[in-house]
Amino acid sequence: MRRITKRLLLAVMLIGSANTGWTQDESETNSFNLEQCVNYALEHNELVKNAKLDREIANRRVGETLADGLPQINANLDLGYNYKVPLTQLPAILIPEGLRDPSIPIDGFIPVAFSTKYTGNAGITLSQMIFNGSYFVGLKAARTYTELSRKDQIKTETDVVEAVTKAYYTVLVNKERLDLILQNYDRVDTLLSDTDALYQNGFAEKIDVNRVKVQFNNLKVEKDNIENLLQLSNDLLKFQMGMPIERKIALSETINKLAFQRINENVSKKYDSRIEYSQLETQRDLLDLDIKNTNSNYYPKVDLYGSLGASAGTESGGDLVSFSKDPWFGLGTVGLKVSVPIFDGLRKSRQVQQKKIQATQIQHTFDQLKRSIDLEINQSVVTYNRSVDNMSAQKENMELAKEVFDVTKIKYEEGVGSNSEVLDADTALKQAQTNYYNALFDALVAKVDLQKAYGTLLNKDV
């Protein structure tokens, strides 16, 4: 009895610990860096999931096309009851005189039944393609279509990676902004306390306290806004990742770890690294196969077929469904069918001409895409370099504004400066900080756009 109690207690403890572990997994905060966010999105984002399913559909389509070249076997059974047996009019002269109704003239017609009340047909048929030019072209086209679906998946993944990366950087920047607001909040709170103390001791006026109080209230509102913005940017990141919104997430990286450097504006361009270019190449291959498929319809088609079955006709339904040997008669056929196209009114010729025109259109699209990629890369390089330069300048301005504020505050505390000078310096510092983080975010976005323009955002062979 004591052993049973121990086992039961152990089972309850295990169940309780399992439930507790599940609750902790749902409530604990998960730490992610950028690479982990991207990998999570590539597995859980619904757009990526659907792209993978589209690829699976394309793979199944290859099997569907392949099935056309395999033996086709069908079985059939047809049991019928002629509740009104059809009659056929025969010339009376064909009927022997002893069997002919005397009332019917010799040049008249006599209705005769050539069918029984119950009829049956059963059999099995087999057909096998021997030669069909369009089949082999279609099989290759199906495999090429599978390749196109793979590239479509890469395009979807690239777009998701872009969205996740930008959302990730947005969270990082908003975190830095919130930390900065909290520092400003503490700094102005200290300034407010110091100014109020000076006022209480007669070394400052009430208006000085009010000025700082206004600054403090504005910072409080700004702090609340940044906190809400940070929450929204976190939710957006989780949405792009395909993560439940209610799940908690923390980012393990900081802005300080990100590196920026100018790049050479004359860097070489590789069109085949862009998934859009690779997709267009596959579409061109599909059109070439479509032309070959149309031309293959000029060739003969050869099929082997055969059938084996039986038919029956009785006046009794029981004899029919008993499948006894007497009323059923066997039948069988084996044959070779050759279909040779001779003239179709120039239909296939017109189809080929249309597809060749479409091939010319695709070539024009290639030319336009190349120029578009050139333009996009050039613009991305210029935008990125300018963003990096602007970020560096704004960072220097922020550091200078901080020095100005510190000096102004020291002068005010020593009685050689005014309260309004401190507030003006604080306002200039906050503006410089805002400008810096705006420039930082622009540089991060420009970096992502540059990687996408070069086709290196998603490290996959296209």
Topology:
Layout: H1 2-27, E1 30-32, H2 34-44, H3 46-67, E2 72-81, E3 87-91, E4 109-113, E5 118-131, H4 133-200, H5 206-241, E6 249-251, H6 275-296, E7 301-314, H7 317-321, E8 328-339, H8 347-413, H9 419-454
Parallel strand pairs: 1-6
Antiparallel strand pairs: 2-5, 3-4, 5-7, 7-8
Q: What does the model show?
A:
The longest helix has 68 residues, at 133-200. The protein starts with a helix and ends in an 8-residue tail after the last helix. Residues 1-24 have low confidence and may be disordered. The strands form 3 sheets. It has a 4-stranded antiparallel beta sheet. A two-stranded parallel sheet has the order 1-6. The radius of gyration is 42 Å and the shape is elongated. The protein has a single domain, classed as Outer membrane efflux proteins (OEP) (Up-down Bundle). By secondary structure, it is of the alpha+beta class. It has helices at residues 2-27, 34-44, 46-67, 133-200, 206-241, 275-296, 317-321, 347-413, 419-454, and strands spanning 30-32, 72-81, 87-91, 109-113, 118-131, 249-251, 301-314, 328-339.
Quick overview:
With 462 residues, the protein is an alpha+beta fold. 63% of the residues lie in helices and 14% in strands.
